[in-house]
């Protein structure tokens, strides 16, 4: 196989949920396409890498240079609710289902001894300031129902537990043990949000 094609396949295969077989099909389709799709993809990717950054407040990706994302700028989102999630895909899932209308905070991972993820690796440092500055009265944990998710939830609660007048809750029924938000349908996610339990 051509070394350049092999290198491209290896890069695609490193993406989440893509194996070498799927990566090979994607590369083959792109290289044989005559409509300019490969060049458009490359240009869009280069543009995104050059301009998109995490929001300094919540971690959501934005193209506003040094500025806040759409959720942090939107005054209608300042309803006193802050939903803590693992990553951006969880934000997209919640937005698609339209079950949450407050603001988000992306941790950027979960505590894990196996993976070597420590508290300093997570986006936790500014949480207490956000709660105070944005008049947050409810923290909603929408983390995976796994050992790592529960460990992370308890750690985050211990860090911000001294904040007065803040209620903690977590998603209720419908989130199976070991489940990720990505795999829940909108109805199940809505039930889990509406029936969230206090902590």
UniProtKB/TrEMBL annotation:
Keyword Metal-binding belongs to the record: yes
InterPro entries: DNA_Rcmb_RecR (IPR000093), Rcmb_RecR (IPR023627), TOPRIM_dom (IPR006171), TOPRIM_RecR (IPR034137)
One of the record's GO molecular function terms: zinc ion binding
Top-level taxon in the UniProt lineage: Bacteria
Keywords: DNA damage, DNA recombination, DNA repair, Metal-binding, Zinc, Zinc-finger
Keyword Transport assigned: no
Domain Toprim positions: 80-176
Listed GO biological process terms: DNA recombination; DNA repair
Pfam families xrefs: RecR_C (PF21175), RecR_HhH (PF21176), Toprim_4 (PF13662)
Assigned protein family: Belongs to the RecR family.
Its biological purpose: May play a role in DNA repair. It seems to be involved in an RecBC-independent recombinational process of DNA repair. It may act with RecF and RecO.
Name assigned to this protein: Recombination protein RecR
Native source species: Candidatus Enterousia excrementavium
Gene from which the chain derives: recR
